[in-house]
Design goal:
- The chain is of the alpha+beta class.
- The protein contains six helices and 17 strands.
- A hairpin with a 5-residue loop joins strand 16 (280-282) and strand 17.
Length: 296
């Protein structure tokens, strides 16, 4: 019987992206690494639970669900989330930041200082700069003030991020220009919380970390994993939770690793010619479908 693995998600460490598996095993993801796995026939996607606890009812969740949680576990997870203002007494210090994902796509956000830039890597931020540092609620007030004053959102859809990765400006200075201008406007605003210290502008660029230099256009993205499906391809880039995989013939498809959670995954056989039989939402004005060449 084939060995079965359960993916806990993609994590960004100091050395780069790693896939984490139940039981603690980690798989480092380097550019060019071969990624190959499948879902056994008859498999179902199980709720991953919340806050380290298994789902009490063992619910089955939809293949397209990013959170991989049933409604009750999703509610429980959200109830203890900083993003939902559920822990206002968090004693940790927080950074306020500006993140850039492509031309015209800037967001403001907060992250615990102890996490460093991990949150920015997890979101796929192409470049970013800190704005301020202080207590949680002061950081949250500043975030809301900046959203209104600068007219920038606190989130950018992943579909929008993926659409521009292959056509980013070529230099770090060009990529940092928008957040440099917004940083100057932000720090000149009146009304900053007194307990929040402003941080001078310094752009941090992730293009090389993500492997986006010269990355080819993706033809589509995996919309869900399904029982009996497989993917096999070479890693050409990784940004946030996304793996850009060459699945054969130079065709690059994006796999959101959050879709892997909750499935029991098995090794995929076959040669290293690449292939894909999971459903794919194709780009370039085509409906969702399946890339048919090179199926196992």
């Amino acid at each position: 019987m084939a060995q079965v693995w359960k993916c806990s998600g993609l994590r960004w460490a100091g050395s780069g992206p790693v896939l984490v598996w139940s039981g603690g095993r980690r798989s480092a993801l380097e550019r060019g690494k071969w990624v190959s796995f499948g879902v056994a026939e008859g498999g179902v996607r199980a709720c991953v639970g919340a806050r380290g606890h298994v789902c009490p009812v063992g619910a089955v969740v939809a293949g397209r669900s990013i959170g991989a949680r049933c409604e009750e576990c999703a509610r429980l997870d959200r109830a203890h989330s900083v993003a939902a203002d559920a822990v206002p007494d968090d004693p940790r210090a927080y950074h306020v930041y500006l993140a850039w994902f492509g031309p015209g796509m800037v967001k403001v956000g907060i992250t615990a200082v102890e996490r460093g830039e991990a949150r920015l890597l997890e979101q796929g931020a192409v470049c970013f700069s800190w704005l301020g540092v202080g207590p949680l609620m002061a950081a949250r007030r500043a975030e809301e003030m900046l959203r209104a004053a600068l007219r920038v959102p606190d989130r950018i859809p992943y579909a929008a991020k993926r659409a521009v990765r292959a056509g980013l400006p070529g230099t770090e200075a060009e990529r940092a220009a928008e957040i440099a201008e917004l940083h100057g406007r932000a720090t000149a605003l009146a009304g900053w919380p007194e307990s929040l210290a402003q941080v001078p502008f310094r752009a941090v660029d992730h293009v090389r970390v993500f492997g986006l230099e010269g990355v080819p256009d993706a033809v589509g993205e995996v919309s869900e994993l399904v029982a009996g499906g497989v993917v096999s391809g070479a890693l050409v880039a990784a940004a946030g939770p996304d793996l850009h995989l060459d699945v054969g013939g130079g065709r690059v498809v994006v796999l959101d690793t959050r879709l892997m959670r909750g499935w029991e995954l098995v090794p995929a056989g076959g040669s290293q010619g690449g292939g894909l039989s999971f459903p794919v939402r194709e780009y370039r004005d085509r409906d969702a479908g399946v890339l048919q060449d090179g199926l196992f």
